[in-house]
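Lecture notes, part 5. Sequence design as translation. It can be helpful to think of inverse folding as translation between two languages: the language of shapes and the language of residues. The source text, in structure tokens, appears below.
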């Protein structure tokens, strides 16, 4: 195996370089090596090398591992301990961000697009978090305003002028000779990226775009009672505009993950609770855990309750957004019949049933053995039908 080049050497920075220096060095190198720009045969290989070096040195944990063990994944190749945030958002990775940074953006569209686009991510929260409301930190990659020029794209003393290549139109026409004759294609001006402007002294870090790929973390306030599919907008945290133009928004789509305990219907919560046959017959009070932390709900089960009966408790469901009210908690009763009564117990119950004029099952119908021997044969054979 070929020995890997030292990541610090690849980027041309010292081993104690700070994050900003590393990023600056990376962007400068990457901009000249990106396959869209550089057609040299080894450009792609070099670009990959630079990219790999940056992906390690820009990640604190990987860099520490690399410094200590010479391996970004740690001593035995196991990453260990790091939080993988990729599951809380989707759609964007550094690769997409890079191609829009280096590639110059969308080639279609007549007018030059200099405003930043909206970005969308998905954020999962538990039902308890949705009930109480919470603040979540999300991490994602975006084109952010360039730190070095404050988004202007100009180096110190630089000026914005009309682009000399496209004369301010933002479009260039290329003429190609084909077997069918001349073919004209119009495309975005590669010099000004369709903006129609150029800068005499562009900022070296962002190449005059006024924005750079950045790993961003942002706090998102999740309102109590949020629903799955609801979108929250974090203004200005989408893609940054070119040279200080308006940034897009970050659209956070919330996904509420229901646990085993509750099922949600609108603002109402359903949960199933076991009661014994006797409790169902006599009535009882249940202490049911609510959806909020340390919440206990006293649920009154009336005498004569049936299996699968719903008992509604107002005000213990999910919070209704925009008000202080809450939906209902609906307790679904699961009446559990004892399966281990002695023959004496059963005889007593038969006497009660007979006195009430109910049908009384004879011992013969139960075939005797059942009463004494806990014969499992019938129960066991019936079980698989109910299994999921
Ligand atoms: Zn131009
Ligand atoms: Zn800049």
């Amino acid at each position: 195996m070929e020995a890997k080049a030292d990541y610090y050497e690849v980027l041309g920075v010292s081993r104690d370089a700070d994050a900003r220096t590393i990023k600056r060095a990376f962007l400068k190198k990457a901009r000249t090596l990106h396959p869209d720009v550089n057609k040299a045969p080894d450009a792609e290989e070099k670009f990959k090398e630079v990219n790999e070096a940056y992906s390690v040195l820009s990640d604190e944990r990987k860099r520490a591992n690399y410094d200590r063990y010479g391996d970004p994944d740690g001593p035995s190749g196991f990453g260990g301990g790091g939080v993988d945030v990729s599951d809380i958002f989707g759609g964007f990775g550094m690769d997409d961000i890079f191609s829009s940074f280096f590639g110059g953006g969308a080639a279609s569209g007549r007018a030059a697009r200099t405003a930043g686009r909206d970005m969308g991510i998905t954020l999962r929260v538990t039902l308890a978090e949705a009930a109480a409301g919470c603040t979540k930190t999300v991490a994602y990659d975006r084109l952010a305003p360039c730190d070095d020029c404050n988004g202007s794209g100009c180096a110190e003393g630089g000026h914005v002028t009309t682009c000399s290549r496209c004369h301010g139109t933002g479009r260039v026409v290329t003429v190609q000779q084909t077997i069918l004759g001349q073919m004209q294609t119009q495309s975005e001006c590669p010099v000004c990226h369709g903006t129609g402007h150029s800068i005499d002294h562009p900022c070296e870090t962002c190449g005059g775009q006024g924005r750079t790929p950045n790993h961003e973390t942002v706090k998102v306030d999740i309102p109590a009672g949020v629903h799955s599919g609801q979108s929250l907008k974090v203004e200005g945290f989408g893609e940054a505009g070119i040279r200080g133009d308006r940034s897009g928004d970050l659209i956070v789509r919330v996904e509420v993950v229901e646990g085993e305990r509750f099922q949600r219907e609108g603002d109402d919560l359903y949960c199933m609770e076991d009661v014994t046959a006797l409790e169902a017959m006599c009535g009882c009070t249940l202490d049911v855990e609510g959806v909020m932390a340390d919440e206990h709900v006293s649920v009154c089960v009336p005498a004569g309750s049936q299996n699968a009966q719903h008992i509604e408790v107002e005000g213990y469901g999910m919070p209704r957004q925009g008000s202080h009210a809450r939906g209902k908690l609906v307790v679904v009763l699961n009446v559990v019949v004892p399966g281990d009564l002695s023959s004496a117990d059963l005889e007593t119950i038969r006497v009660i049933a007979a006195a009430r004029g109910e049908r009384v099952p004879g011992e013969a119908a139960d075939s005797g053995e059942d009463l004494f021997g806990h014969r499992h044969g019938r129960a066991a054979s019936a079980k698989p039908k109910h299994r999921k």
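The translated text above is only one of many valid answers, since several sequences can fold into similar shapes. The pocket of zinc ion (ligand 1) is lined by residues 163, 165-166, 170, 189, 191-192, 196 (CB under 6 Å).
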